[in-house]
UniProtKB/TrEMBL annotation:
Residues 60-284 form the Aminotransferase-like plant mobile domain. This is Aminotransferase-like plant mobile domain-containing protein. Residues 409-443 form a coiled coil. Keywords: Coiled coil. Signal peptide: none annotated.
Amino acid sequence: MVKAAGKSSIGATNSPDELFVSAFLFQNIGSFSTRFSLPSFLKQVKRLTVHQSEALQKTGFGNLLSIPNQRLNKSLLDELMRRWDTNKQAFVLPRGEISLNLMDIALILSLRVVGPPVSLVNSIPFGDLERDYGAVIWKRKITVTSLESKLNSFGDLCSDEFVITFLMYTFGTFLFPNANGTVDSRLLSYIQDVDSIRRFSWGEAVLKDVCNWLDQRKMKSVKYVGGCLLFLQIWSFEHIDIARPALLGSSVSFPRVFKWDKSKLHSKQQIMSQFKSLHNDQVTQELQLTSWESEIDIIKELLEAQSNEKEHSEVENSCVNSPIDCESEVDTIKELLEAHSNGKEHSEAENSFVNSPIVIDCDFGATPQMMSPIIIEVKSVSKIIHKKPKLIRSASQNDANTIITIGEEEDLRRRVKMLEEKIMELQKENVELMGENEELRKDNKLLRLSSDNLVLEIVNSSLYISSLIQQLDDRFCNL
């Protein structure tokens, strides 16, 4: 059973089964502590009216309102964290490795994992809404206790402000809890338009946050661990047959967090022993979809996105990871095609080129993996120019490069077009990155000005206080 580190903020005595613990009090979980508090979240859920629940359903977080109360299995979570590998981004088990993925978060919590990302970058402008919730530009944080107080003040009122406040409270206690009992106020920029909340990839953000806390726990041995620990626990039940509770047998099986009964208590020695004797048949690497789950919208769009990504990757591998600096190489290939289409016959060139690979040297200017030359093997071009372009050389057997076989002129032209499109795409991305960089410079300048003004105000205040003290001393001396 999870015990609170102090008294509940509500002032009531909590029963062992209910485990209602205030969001701003730490819970001792084995050798670490956390502000994750499902009971605090569920306590607010119980207060919702029908209209408030309906409004929250429209944001994409509706299934969270029906999550059953769960105990955090302290021994299991502690052992999982110990087995996390930061380099591999996976749990290392006796029989192999297993990682967290987007399908896991979609199936377990029913959160969308496709769409615009939720990224808390400094370039997000500081807005009036953040100020209204108590954040300041040099510390963009909102306390969970202030959100709880604000929620209690709404009563039965259902408004956009209520929805925003409830979601921020959900972030602070359930989805993105941290070690300080606060919520990043930049999240308000993603939920201030209530009608657009559901379009963002909230599940992906939860997954990244969990992985970040696993990294911090492993690398820095942090005592207070944040992140959605319930997701991590249900993930373990789904993938690893250790310390699993009973299945509820309910007709509602999606999301999968609904399937599992409350976790039973296990000693640390029991969990460690079970991990050491783990067999392959106790581990499920990839969760299998049921026919019903495959028809759910957020699952369908993830499957479609994965399929598109796979096709895109195959196209890139069959062509070239073409960079911005390859325009000259593309021009070279065009010369070959133009000469071929003009019907120039050069038997000597044909004999030296046909059925032998040629290499196009290209400085990709990106990553080391992209620095290899491109080898193009020409098999069926019967007419080709005799003049060898400057950037083309014969390929040796030692060239370990990507080989692209071109059987027909049309195929070669298609590949040239793909290279040109890739070049334009990268040029566009470069322009966008330059724009973002400029925005970051502006934000940095604004922060420096704010910091300077703050320091100036502190200095002026200190001078004013010193002046008052001097006046009091003078009056005291006169008396």
